[in-house]
Amino acid sequence: MDMFVIQGPTRLSGTVVINGAKNAVLPLMAAALLARGKNVIENVPRLRDVHTMIQLLEILGARVTFDKHVLTIDTTRLKRLEAPYDLVRTMRASIYVLGPLVAAHRRARVSMPGGCAWGPRPIDLHLMALERLGAKLALDRGYINATARRLKGAEIVFPISSVGATGQTLMACVLAKGITTIKNAALEPEITELAEALVSAGAKIEGIGQTTMRIEGVEEIEPLKYRVMPDRIEAGTFAAAAAATGGKVRIDKCNPSHLESVLHALRACGAKIQTGRDNVYVEGPERVDPVHVVTREYPGFPTDMQAQIIAVLCRARGTSTVKDTIYPDRFTHIPELRRLGANIRLDGNIAVITGVKMLKGAPVMATDIRASSALIISGLMARGRTEIRRVYHIDRGYEAIEKRLRKLGASIRRVSE
Ligand code: EPU
Description:
The chain has 417 residues and is an alpha/beta fold. It contains 14 helices and 24 strands. It is elongated, with a radius of gyration of 21 Å.
């Protein structure tokens, strides 16, 4: 297993280019199952999660090539409509294939994902929506067996906002007979991206980017030809790292309008920020100011940046709070940050962070994608040597992060344990 060795402290400086968005690519890869033929998706990041999804599509019988960030998925001959437990348990987003398979192939067998390190993360809303569209679902030995005739449009009202359930429903209902209305649809840019990609392939969707969407089902859609938007969480992570290290970093090929809540928080911390059409420049202060952050659905502060902002605040001049309203248990990074000398108390779903003058390097362990990027940020801030174990978590969501940080002047190496 690989680990990262960081020698700190570092001030990041230079330019980093942002890759395509993981959480936009994964549903698009599942949406490729809706049409027969060759789908082409561009600007696809080289991530472990993308490779897991490729493996899943290949098990289903798709022919996949992945070269220079271009992914082709040929779905002409699918053979086995099953997503096995071994893949679904390593990546929950595998559940996205359920809707497209039922909609386009009238049946599917998909493993239930099970729990996750930071809570139960149910999929009840995905299943509720598919049943409302007419799919028959049965649980068999941990698998959802789904069958359907052609799905039928319906009104679907989500009691809470869910990115996954909205994406799942969209993919299923574009081929349903009649009209589907989705109420309380998620507003995250990854959902807008999915809707736009589906429209470009012939789907009829109104209300994109709004909480109520109206979809008129069509008989078939064309294979996708789509270029994926930049990853707002990757851009936010580099912005946080620049602010935390007192660095000067230009973040290129990103979409600043997707980053407003994150940039607002970093400005409140004392970072100087300028935005251009597709870039952001961040200049961090000597030590950040304390702030109070609450994660919310888009356009609120993203839960996927919660761990990173906590890392930034570990050296603030005073006490900050960070509350996660989306995943109240997503705090596995806190005990690890404490090993570096951070002063953090957890009060329910609120982290209370009292800034310390300096963090000190230590061996720590990554527990999930965003927790690991928080550990990297704190390793860059800390004096001395930080070793981060289990970096496979970070490889799920960030392409070659150590090389890109080295270009920004960081001392970070990947070594085999
Ligand atoms: N929820 C339910 N029932 C459902 C679905 C969700 O109760 O059927 C709850 C969840 O437990 C949570 C809330 O609804 O409390 C929101 O969850 P959501 O469905 O929006 O999350 P997701 O689709 O499972 C995606 C991202 C996550 C990101 C969340 C929130 C992908 C592949 N994953 O998950 O990304 O944290 O939205 O924005 O898009 C990551 O990239 O590190 C990551 C975890």
